[in-house]
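Exam review. A common question shows you a sequence with its structure tokens and asks you to describe the fold in words. Practice with the pair below. Do the first one on your own.
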Amino acid sequence: MPVPPAHGAPPLDRALLRRLGFSAATAAFQIEGARAEDGRSRSIWDDFVDTPGRVRDGSTADPGPDSYHRVAEDVALLAHLGVDQYRFSLSWVRVLPEGRPNPQGLAYYDRLVDRLLDAGITPTPTLYHWDLPSRLEADGGWLNRATAERFAQYVEVVADALGDRVRHWYTINEPVSTTLQGYAIGELAPGRTLLFDALPTAHHQLLAHGYAVRILRGHGATRIGIVNNHTQVLPASRSEEDLQAAYLYDLVHNRMFADPVLLGRYPDLEPYVSALPVHDGDLALISAPCDVYGVNYYNPTTVAAAAGPVPFEVVPTPGAPVTGFGPLWPIVPEALTAFLVDAKERYGEALPPVVIAENGASFPEPDQVDGPLDDADRIDYLRGHIGAVLDALRAGVRVDAYTVWSLLDNFEWADGYTQRFGLVHVDMATGRRTPKASYAWFRALIEEARS
């Protein structure tokens, strides 16, 4: 039988689907809750959400989905879904509060890893998904090279504790988001507005990635990759000004984070930054070979020229439907294919097999439900983007796996609980989990791909 279509769309190619692994993803701060338990200390996201006006609905991440206490339930949802892997993140401040290993925090992840393995699911932790310890931000955060060295100490602790069972790892999640949204324009933690002066944080995060790769290799890891948020950049018009704006946006959003990892060099960023704080040996460390390259993809980005210290602005993509985030989150699946093909042509053999490490969409949904939610828009989005991955496979791009964001509705950073990405609805007042129609659709797709 062909893979079930989504609302009349043509069926997906099962032969190509069989070439993919399937995963679902979450992040610690967004789902765990238990902020004051087991010795956990504060992160920059605790500081951000506790600052009035930072989070759209005034909410906090605690208890949220409360996965810390409902881990068995969540692993059962993953097992029923049929995924090969589970991408979750480790909380730096739970593992290493105040710079010292925390046996209670490590025990939580120890239990999670064992439950996943018992369920036949490969644990694939992300070492850093934005929860920088507040004590390190007070010393400069990712602007300070020493933060990468402190990260290496954290990775050693994690690898010692989990490396006997965990062989698949992601290092840093979306360094571009931390740099541009966290340090440049202040939309995310730590909420700083340094504009182009934020760019050194990119180098220090990539340096942390390099340290992590070296440490994990020493602990027997067999599958390591970084995860970058990437986008296909579209000029708003064919004017020279818009073309130049799009070129610059591609540099700072895509190439600044991919080129050092894959090619061992930064693109030319002059005149916007005079020099990055690169020391001898840094680029060799950053570009040490990885086994996969993680791509988080949600939408293309249309860019126009702008006046002022930042010479570009993101504008709506004409004619494209949008997700619950509005006009700057257009739904254009073919742009994912275009990005992957462009990456293959740009990087050639330097590009390892790609993993789609996040892909998903939020749409307006109620806080409480009485039964499975018919999230037809999400099914259409997922179907379209999985189809786009298959088109990239046809074009010769090596893609190993597809990961849906997210398993659960969760705390969506500065948007709080106003955006829901989950295959599973979560009532944030009670923690009750209710699989949506998209959960059943994705499960059927995996079953058909494996048959």
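Now try the second one, then compare your answer with the model answer below.
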Amino acid sequence: MPVLSARPPWRETFASLRVPNYRRFAAGNLVANTAVWMQRIAMDWLVLQLSGSVAAVGITVFMQFTPMLLFGLYGGVLTDRYSKQKLLIASQSAAALLAAVLAALTLTGTTQVWHVYVISFLLGMVTVVDNPARQVFVNELVGPRYLRNAISLNSSIFQLGGLIGPAVGGLLINAVGGGWSFAINAAACLAVVAALCSLDRSALHASPAAPRGKGQLVEGMRYVRRKPVIFWTIVMVAVVAVFAFNMPVFLAAYANDVFDVGAQGYGLFNALVAAGALAGALASTRRTSVRLSMVVGTAAALGIVQAAAGFAPTEIAFSLLLVGIGVGNLLFITAANSLVQMSSNVQIRGRVISLYILVLLGGQAIGGPLMGWIVEAAGPHDAMILSGVVPAVAAVVVALLIARHASLRLRFGLRGRRPVIAIVNRGGKNGAVL
């Protein structure tokens, strides 16, 4: 993996788009991500309106992410064994079909809450294959030279869709209902299928397929356990996913119960988070390197900002902090994603990424109903504070454990009149930055 010794110039911010295959893939992703965010907003609001319960929104999150908890590692095995391009074509075709069914149910006025739960679960089954295949396929599109840049741009594209989608979705819900959001997403998934089919296969950096064999799941888990950089990153992702990455639950409660701003306000809150996340994703393209200390530090910063949002006295203050949450969210997740991908061997990367995604999405499956219950039991403000405090404390604990394992300590001193804080080993010499 190329190592950058200096911050890249601004003209290199979109360097991976020089690759024709990646340009097609990115264009399809932008359309699809915008539509997915529209569908996500419409589904959450539909469940809230049908049930009148924030906890029901949490159950929807749980149903969508549970398949990753149950079958996520098998998605990594499939990704390592088979063509990522073919897997993505199949998964996006299935997603288009499910979105079309949900659109038909909603537009005919026959939707019930259990329909949304079932479709959410089936969409989660699609994600089991789609997410690891999509993550690893980026490497085949751009090769190692542009991989870090492409990972950051993928996050930017996802968040640009998150900026446009919720705002448009909120307007559509108010104007004509959520059913059309599902129909648009079905069409967008088919557009991604068309983009995947049009790629130049001869220009792909094909990864060697992993042979069939026993114990491949265990092999991937042992590999992660032996690599502290990957292991501690996944631990931090698990904590943040359970407590901090359930914004639909919090924002639905704030829009409906605290500020009474309706579906349009809910869409605006999501768009503000996405705006901050887009800024964070673009900032991540300027990184010269990614270290474990960056993952732990951004998790702590995200937790502090999210806890502060729970104390926000007004809608304006809350909205500004949502932008900060978006920035912290993306700086954390792009650092974690980049570190896991670039620290793993290419032949086992699918299984490593599937474990990472299992923890990321599985954590949200657990956290969705948990935080929904806390919102209803303790109120939105206390739940938001808790969602930030726990990751911040966990980051401090993980940092201390890593420092202890590496025999590092903090040394305080003065350089002239300036205070200096340094990380050193137990012998007093300068220690390596984590």
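Model answer, second protein: The chain has a mean pLDDT of 80. The longest helix spans residues 20-51. Full marks require stating both points clearly.
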